[in-house]
Design goal:
CATH topology of the largest domain: Isopropylmalate Dehydrogenase
Function: Catalyzes the oxidation of 3-carboxy-2-hydroxy-4-methylpentanoate (3-isopropylmalate) to 3-carboxy-4-methyl-2-oxopentanoate. The product decarboxylates to 4-methyl-2 oxopentanoate.
Strand order of the largest sheet: 2-1-3-12-11-4-5-10-8-9
Pathway: Amino-acid biosynthesis; L-leucine biosynthesis; L-leucine from 3-methyl-2-oxobutanoate: step 3/4
Bound molecules: nicotinamide-adenine-dinucleotide, 3-isopropylmalic acid, magnesium ion
Order of helices and strands: EHEHHEHEHEEEHEHEHEHEEHHH
Family: Belongs to the isocitrate and isopropylmalate dehydrogenases family. LeuB type 1 subfamily.
Oligomer: single chain
Catalytic activity: (2R,3S)-3-isopropylmalate + NAD(+) = 4-methyl-2-oxopentanoate + CO2 + NADH
CATH superfamily of the largest domain: Isopropylmalate Dehydrogenase
Helix content: 40-55%
CATH architecture of the largest domain: 3-Layer(aba) Sandwich
Radius of gyration: 20 Å
Main location: cytoplasm
CATH class of the largest domain: Alpha Beta
Number of strands: 12
Strand content: 15-25%
Length: 351
């Protein structure tokens, strides 16, 4: 019986995770779910944003389902030493699981173009997979400091770090349209020069059937919304991927439609890309679609259950058509939307 560790976290995390858990129980009733603490609440209760008990629970987990961590800008959590802050708990979790490849799909489902603020002809058919490097770069390098009026962080990558995430991107592209765009800032940064060189060399050595091109991150920030259909798989380093994926959320219509899967060599981590949304937390109005779709990715990538994952994706699309949430200009609250997903799961597919 597969064991899934759930980590609801802070803000809207518990609200959207509860929805995803309901859906998981419906489509995978044999799975064991075990809830643990992470983030700001974990610090308040256990003095650590990634407590030892949570760390221990990962040992025999098959997959991890995460909500969100963090507080508002004026939260006391933001005045803690950095290693005690909620976000540090999340980064430590990613590192503990060794999840170096973060898959962030950006998809406009047929019939849901109207949810996008882009013109329907631009939004129609968009299907991008952003592969974000998740354990390296400026997020993790030890060389960082703030001291009086001076502060620095360093962005560092090694060839093995670049190659392992690029491999995931090439592999994904082989199952899709065979195109990879590697995004960097090689016109300015040495670290991007290495990134570009290593991605190209790997393509030339092992993935000759893949069409690879390189683009600068500033240009991609424009083109991804101006002409999103030009992209199939995008592979990029940690910080660029963080920013580009929130930007890309505009294409389907909301951060609440952006799930993710973080994969390494052990159990995967599945989480919506959005944050704890302190502005709407506790009101029961968060869009749980990204969390539910993350549970779908867990079924697909974490447990190898594609059929169940397809059922979830189809049900989410139906619920979005009939009961859009407030972030999408609709009126459905979290409960109504989740109910609609559960109802759609119970309705046999036609055709
Ligand atoms: N993976 C994570 O846990 C994660 C990711 C990003 C940010 N954060 C943390 O979350 C906190 C808030 O960050 P932020 O405000 O910059 O970003 P955010 O993603 O929490 O919110 C940005 C905006 O999007 C809206 N939004 C986000 N998710 C939504 C959903 N599911 N349904 C409806 N609306 C939604 C919010 O209401 C807000 O207006 C910070 O502490 C930050 O560090 C955590
Ligand atoms: C909360 C933060 C550490 C995190 C990140 O920057 O990776 C978030 O923005 C994300 O996109 O998952
Ligand atoms: Mg982010």
């Amino acid at each position: 019986m597969p064991k899934i560790v759930t980590l609801p976290g802070d803000g809207i995390g518990p609200e959207v995770t509860a929805a995803a858990v309901e859906v998981l129980r419906e489509v995978a009733p044999d799975v064991t779910l075990e809830e643990h603490a992470i983030g700001g609440g974990a610090f308040d209760n256990h003095g650590d944003p990634f407590p030892q008990r949570t760390r221990d629970a990962l040992q025999d987990a098959d997959a991890v389902l995460l909500g969100t961590v963090g507080g508002a800008h004026d939260s006391p959590w933001n005045r803690l030493p950095r290693h005690q802050r909620p976000e540090s708990g999340l980064l430590a979790l990613r590192r503990a699981l060794g999840c170096y490849a973060n898959l962030r799909p950006v998809r406009v489902q047929p019939g849901l173009e109207h949810l996008s603020p882009l013109k329907p002809e631009l939004a129609r058919g968009v299907d991008i997979l952003i592969v974000r490097e998740l354990l390296g770069g400026i997020y993790f390098d030890g060389d960082r400091q703030i001291d009086g009026a001076t502060a620095y962080n360093t962005m560092r990558y090694t060839t093995p770090e670049v190659e392992r995430v690029a491999r995931r991107a090439f592999w994904a592209a082989e199952q899709r349209r065979g195109r990879v765009t590697s995004v960097d800032k090689a016109n300015v940064l040495e670290v991007s020069e290495l990134w570009r060189r290593d991605v190209q060399a790997l393509r030339d050595r092992e993935y000759r059937s893949i069409h690879l091109n390189h683009e600068y991150v500033d240009s991609v920030a424009m083109l991804i919304v101006a002409d999103p259909s030009r992209y199939d798989v995008i592979v990029t380093e940690n910080l660029f991927g963080d920013i580009l994926s929130d930007l890309a959320a505009v294409i389907p219509g909301s951060l609440g439609l952006m799930p993710s899967a973080s994969l390494g060599d052990g159990p995967g981590l599945f989480e919506p890309i959005h944050g704890s949304a302190p502005d709407i937390a506790g009101q029961g109005v968060a869009n749980p679609a990204a969390a539910i779709m993350s549970a779908g990715m867990l079924l697909r990538h974490g447990l190898g259950r594609s059929d169940a994952a397809n059922v979830v994706d189809r049900a989410v699309a139906i619920a979005l058509r009939e009961h859009p949430t407030r972030d999408l200009g609709g009126r459905a609250d979290t409960r109504t939307f989740t109910r609609a997903v559960l109802d759609a799961i119970g309705t046999p597919a036609v055709g």
